[in-house]
TrEMBL record:
Residues 382-471, 680-739 are annotated as: Disordered. Residues 406-435, 718-739 have a biased composition (Polar residues). GO terms for biological process: response to stress. This is Heat shock protein 105 kDa. Gene3D superfamilies: 1.20.1270.10, 3.30.30.30, 3.30.420.40, Actin, Chain A, domain 4 (3.90.640.10), Substrate Binding Domain Of DNAk, Chain A, domain 1 (2.60.34.10). It comes from the Eukaryota. It is found in: Cytoplasm. Interacts with HSPA8/HSC70. Interacts with HSPA1A (via NBD) and HSPA1B (via NBD). InterPro entries: ATPase_NBD, Heat_shock_70_CS, HSP70_C_sf, HSP70_peptide-bd_sf, Hsp_70_fam. Residues 388-400 have a biased composition (Acidic residues). The keyword Ribosomal protein does not apply. Residues 446-469, 688-717 have a biased composition (Basic and acidic residues).
Length: 739
């Protein structure tokens, strides 16, 4: 059961977190995208059991011991290790390779500092102060003690969710062999967490504002997550929506189940009920660029809050040389991280036209299916004049009056890629409608204005035909983009991380094999020692028993002393030495268990074939068809096997249980197979088939009536079929009068 496996893993993590506190990394996801000197990092650093250190790029690093050496890993590396381990676990359970996954990322409206761990922290701070006052002990001075207190406070929180009475907190040998105790009830807990409970309403208000819904529009509310079990949290959510909240989903598994459903939707191997899920960009994104005038800048919000994703837009710029775009989150206060910049993008190889005019540059910006923003492509439009008679199908920039406007424009590069988002955009940037014009002195241009079709048609009849205008053939030249992202890992650093992880995976594999070899020795010692005083006791003499027991005890002591950290081959050799004494004992036991059953089976088969031979001699009709020479072979084989069996039983009877057997199970199996191979084909011969005499057809006998003597009607009627059958092709019908 996967739930049992999950619980086992959680218990293992808890155990490791206490026994190897300084080397177990947890609660690190909030350090992504933050500098080491970030106030939040410095505050959280005090609560951690492991050491945080600054990286060369200013990011957050973790100092741990690996293979008896001190190593510093970035938060990104730690996350990669976790995902790799999860991938291995999934592959082990699925029995097949895993190539893709779905990871849930919170969005829309949330408070990153309002969760179960924050409520736990309130309890920990309270009991730290109480223990310090009551027992003169400081739990924060000892990492293991603090971790144990966190675990007990989490249990206490869960108990208070289902009980309103005082709940005791007891921890044995907490610090300096001192037992500590305390108590709290639900009312005290809610009073302690009053400031956290007051913050519940803000994300809900933000949610309603972003979805543009009223409370009256909501028909049902389902809450998930561990902290939603707290009664005070439920009450405030229910009060906000004015209706009872539903908790039909498993609070701990809901997110995982949602990810599993999304996996099924994306996978071609599963068929699910048809419905669409449109991801959204939770934070608005804008672009900033320098204009031709050095003292001004252009700004344009390319993706508004909750814009559908994935989505692409194309912006048009007019430039004589390379230029730079800076992407950033439009609302820095709405982003739960101090850094609002996304990155800088330099559009390279831009040059003026031959006549010195500015070149038209098209830049595609995109939020992909993972919610990541990028300036994906850039191209420079180079016009080439040509006569209309040369080629009417070429891509043109100036079109005749009777052509459709932008929707049918042959320049497909200006169309938004909105098919992935499943919506038709109303934005026109570079020929596509935009919800808000760029508030800049030099915005991206809007081209190909849509003419008034009615007025154009009216003027056509009154005015003489216009002179033919030369069409302009254009070609798009791809431009390189230099991207400099905030907190982006450089290629060399990324390759180094990948190489390091590969080496660690290989080292982990070797370490697992070494541990498996060590565990095999330990398991053999404990298992054999128990069996020597149980089922194996009769199959070893007293002298060998004492010697083997002493070796097992010696090996056990070696495992926990000088053999604690040996190479794999050392453990393999140690196990072989144990098996040299243990395997003969185990074999005697197994032989004693199997031998009587096989001898009994062999005796039954001998009796079976001997009985058939006797019936043959008595002229039994069942076997009288068998050749006498063949049956003699059966009798001879039975006689020989009976003699072998009697000798084997006699020899084995002279052996004690602690001696090697006179006859092995494999020999009995071979004799049984030999007996069956000789006898079975003979005694199962089928009787030969005897042909029955042919019956004369009565219709062919001479008849007193000849056909020529029959009347005309009788000649035409057919003879009746035997057994009352009628031929399917008969066309005649028989009329019968029934009385």
């Amino acid at each position: 059961d996967w739930r049992a496996s999950l619980q086992a893993v959680q218990l293992l993590v808890v155990k490791l977190q206490i026994t190897h506190a300084h080397n177990t990394v947890s609660n690190f996801k909030r350090f992504h995208g933050r500098a080491f000197n970030d106030p939040f990092v410095q505050k959280e650093k005090e609560k951690l059991s492991y050491d945080l250190v600054p990286m060369k790029n200013g990011g957050v690093g973790v100092k741990v011991m690996y293979m008896d050496e001190e190593h510093i890993f970035s938060v990104e590396q730690i996350s990669a290790m976790l995902l790799t381990k999860l991938k291995e676990t999934a592959e082990s359970n699925l029995k097949k390779p895993v190539t893709d996954c779905v990871i849930s990322v919170l969005g829309t409206a949330f408070d990153p500092f309002l969760g179960g761990r924050n409520f736990d922290g309130k309890l920990v701070d309270y009991f730290c102060a109480e223990i310090k006052s009551k027992y003169k002990l400081d739990p924060k001075a000892k990492v293991r003690a603090l971790l144990r207190l966190y675990q007990e406070c989490e249990k206490l929180k869960k108990l208070m969710s289902s009980n309103s009475t005082d709940i005791p907190l007891n921890i044995e040998c907490f610090m300096n062999d001192t037992d500590v105790s305390g108590k709290m009830n639900r009312s005290q807990f809610e009073e302690l967490c009053a400031d956290l409970l007051q913050r519940i309403e803000m994300p809900l208000l933000s949610l309603m504002e972003q979805t543009q819904l009223k409370v009256e529009d909501v028909t049902a509310v389902e809450i998930v997550g561990g902290a939603t079990r707290i009664p005070a949290v439920k009450e405030r959510i229910a009060k906000f929506f004015g209706k009872d909240v539903s908790t039909t989903l498993n609070a701990d598994e809901a997110i995982a189940r949602g990810c599993a459903l999304q996996c099924a939707i994306l996978s071609p191997a599963f068929k699910v009920r048809e419905f669409s899920v449109t991801d959204a960009t939770p934070f608005p994104i804008s672009l900033l660029w320098n204009t031709e005038a050095e003292d001004t800048e252009g700004v344009h919000e390319v993706f508004s809050r909750n814009h559908a994703a994935p989505f692409s837009k194309v912006l048009t710029f007019y430039r004589k040389g390379p230029f730079e775009l800076e992407a950033f989150y439009s609302d820095p206060n709405g982003v739960p991280y101090p850094e609002s910049k996304i990155g800088r993008y330099i559009i390279q190889n831009v040059a003026a036209q031959k006549d010195g005019e500015k070149s038209k540059v098209k830049v595609k910006v995109r939020v992909n299916t993972h919610g990541i923003f990028s300036v994906s492509t850039a191209s420079m439009v180079e016009p080439v004049k040509s006569e209309e008679s040369e080629d009417v199908n070429v891509e043109t920039e100036v079109e005749s009056q009777d052509q459709r406007p932008i929707e049918n424009s042959s320049d497909k590069n200006i169309q938004q890629e909105n098919s992935e988002a499943g919506t038709q955009s109303q934005v026109q940037t570079d020929g596509q409608q935009t919800s808000q014009p760029p508030p800049s002195s030099e915005p991206p241009s809007e081209e190909n204005k849509i003419p008034d079709v009615k007025k154009t048609n009216e003027k056509k009849g009154d005015q003489p035909p216009e002179a033919k205008k030369p069409k302009i053939k254009v070609k798009n030249v791809d431009l390189p983009i230099e991207a400099n992202l905030v907190w982006e890992l450089g290629k060399e650093l990324l390759n180094m991380y990948i190489e390091t992880e590969g080496k660690m995976i290989m080292q982990d594999k070797l370490e697992k094999e070494r541990n498996d070899a060590k565990n095999a020795v330990e398991e053999y010692v404990y298992e054999f020692r128990d069996k020597l005083s149980g089922p194996y006791e009769k199959f070893v003499c007293e002298k060998d028993l004492q010697g083997f027991s002493a070796l097992l005890t010696e090996t056990e002591g070696w495992l926990y002393e000088e053999g604690e950290d040996e190479a794999k081959q050392v453990y393999v050799d140690k196990l072989e030495d144990l098996k040299k004494l243990g395997t003969p004992i185990e074999t005697r036991y197994q032989e004693a268990e199997e031998r009587p059953k096989l001898l009994e089976e062999l005796g039954h088969r001998l009796q079976y074939y001997a009985t058939i031979a006797g019936e043959f001699r008595n002229k039994d009709e069942k076997y009288i068809h068998i050749d006498e020479m063949e049956m003699m072979k059966v009798e001879k084989c039975v006689s020989e096997v009976v003699e072998w069996m009697n000798n084997a039983v006699s020899a084995q009877a002279k052996k004690s249980l602690d001696q090697d057997p006179a006859v092995h199970s494999s020999e009995i199996k071979a004799k049984l197979q030999e007996l069956n191979n000789v006898c079975e084909p003979v005694v199962t011969q089928p009787k030969p088939k005897v042909d029955s005499p042919k019956e004369e057809n009565p219709l062919n006998e001479r008849s007193d009536f000849k056909p020529e003597d029959m009347g005309e009607d009788e000649k035409n009627s057919e003879m009746p079929q035997q057994n009352g059958e009628c031929h399917p092709s008969d066309q005649n019908t028989i009329s019968m009068d029934l009385d």
